Amino acid sequence: MKKVVLKHNVITLYIKVPVINSEGGGRQLANFRGQIEFRDVSFSYPQRPNIPILKHFNLKISPGETVAVVGPSGSGKSTIVQLIQRHYDVNQGQVLIDDVDIRDLDVKWLREQMGVVSQEPVLFAGSVRTNIGMMESEASQDDIEQAAKVANAHDFISGLPEGYETWIGEGGTGISGGQKQRVAIARALLRNPTVLLLDEATSALDTRSEQAVQAALDKAGRGRTVVMVAHRLTTVRNAGRIIVLDHGVIKETGTHEDLLVLGGIYAGMVASMVIYFVPFTNQFQFAIWF
């Protein structure tokens, strides 16, 4: 007689509970303008409470202004983007949206007013149309195409075998890195956000792809408040204001030209830029890596 041994596989499910409850209600502003202010903000991540990320941080961004945040890795750049979306609450001070404390606002409503484009776009197995319109279920085909045109994506999508109905794989397999980013930009623009948050949106792209995506971002930012975290000179040089962040503190602020004249940290970054030769164009492309 054979002995049968049954093996039981035990699956443990870990459910990550958001730090901020997005279903808690709160105020919705009738005429959202897109003004953002950090007022004496200090912040540490809950997992590392003894490591300060921002220290008495002050920054006011006017409606429609484009502000670039640069600095070395770990300086707190991406933290600013996360706090604007209220993924965390500050330890000290206030984040104000149109002069209202962000903690008094409806979190779900707040995030719906913002378009976010990150370094690695999240794309799912499905049609290009579905990937653009997935956050706006009532969007028409015309709405989707208009967003794609602003994102400089319409032409390449139209050239795909089945146009907007072309199937792409999980993670966007089947299209290039630059095309993935433009699909992500179109998705962000479909809701017509007042605030556009760009978290290293071009840092993973090659130079040729970056040029196409940067042109799309420049067009997408018109008439919106834009906060961009970036590593490359080509991304930040045309910003209305550049903030140089180091260890959670603003060290320099000004336009590209202002900061070059200042001759400080930013000027040093520019001096250490890498020069790329762009194939087939007979042109040199300047980039900056911090």
Helices and strands, with pairings:
Elements: E1 36-43, E2 54-61, E3 66-70, H1 77-84, E4 92-97, E5 100-101, H2 107-112, E6 114-118, E7 126-127, H3 128-133, H4 141-150, H5 154-158, E8 167-168, H6 177-190, E9 195-199, H7 207-220, E10 225-229, H8 233-236, E11 241-246, E12 249-254, H9 256-262, H10 265-271, E13 274-278, E14 283-287
Parallel strand pairs: 3-10, 3-11, 6-9, 9-10
Antiparallel strand pairs: 1-2, 1-4, 4-5, 7-8, 11-12, 13-14
Helix pairs in contact: 4-6, 6-7, 9-10
InterPro entries: AAA+_ATPase, ABC_transporter-like_ATP-bd, ABC_transporter-like_CS, P-loop_NTPase, Type_1_exporter
Keywords: ATP-binding, Membrane, Nucleotide-binding, Transmembrane, Transmembrane helix, Transport
Domain ABC transporter: 36-272
Kindly describe this structure.
The protein is α/β, with parallel strands linked by helices. It has one domain: P-loop containing nucleotide triphosphate hydrolases (Rossmann fold, 3-Layer(aba) Sandwich), CATH 3.40.50.300. It is 28% helix and 24% strand. The chain contains ten helices and 14 strands. It has helices at residues 77-84, 107-112, 128-133, 141-150, 154-158, 177-190, 207-220, 233-236, 256-262, 265-271; strands at 36-43, 54-61, 66-70, 92-97, 100-101, 114-118, 126-127, 167-168, 195-199, 225-229, 241-246, 249-254, 274-278, 283-287. It has a six-stranded mixed sheet. The chain has a four-stranded antiparallel sheet with strand order 2-1-4-5, covered by helices on one side. It has a two-stranded antiparallel ribbon with strand order 7-8. Strand 4 (92-97) and strand 5 (100-101) form a beta hairpin. Helix 6 packs parallel to helix 7 (207-220) and helix 9 crosses helix 10. The radius of gyration is 21 Å and the shape is globular. It starts with 35 loop residues before the first strand and ends with a strand.
